[in-house]
Write a structure and sequence with these properties.
Largest sheet: 3 strands, antiparallel
Distance between the termini: 13 Å
Structural class: alpha+beta
CATH class: Alpha Beta
CATH superfamily: Ribosomal protein L30/L7
Number of strands: 3
Number of helices: 2
CATH topology: Ribosomal Protein L30, Chain: A
Shape: globular
Number of domains: 1
Radius of gyration: 11 Å
Oligomer: single chain
Strand order of the largest sheet: 2-1-3
């Protein structure tokens, strides 16, 4: 199983509630088009579920 996830912000943050803004900040995403690679853990999965409508997620293949 891949232990890395590639995430990309696909929607803006205007009008989103405070919790969603804090989660996006925790993921390191600020602007539409921002991309990050994060570790696949239960904590990160929980964060991704809360903002799933704002991001695109892919499993990153290990080399």
């Amino acid at each position: 199983m891949s232990n890395l996830l590639w995430i990309k912000q696909i929607r803006g943050l205007a009008g989103k509630n405070k919790n969603q803004l804090l989660i996006m900040k925790g993921l390191g995403l600020k602007h539409v088009g921002d991309e990050r690679t994060i570790v696949n853990s239960q904590a990160s999965i929980g964060m991704l579920k809360k903002v799933s409508h704002l991001i695109y997620v892919e499993r990153k293949k290990e080399v």
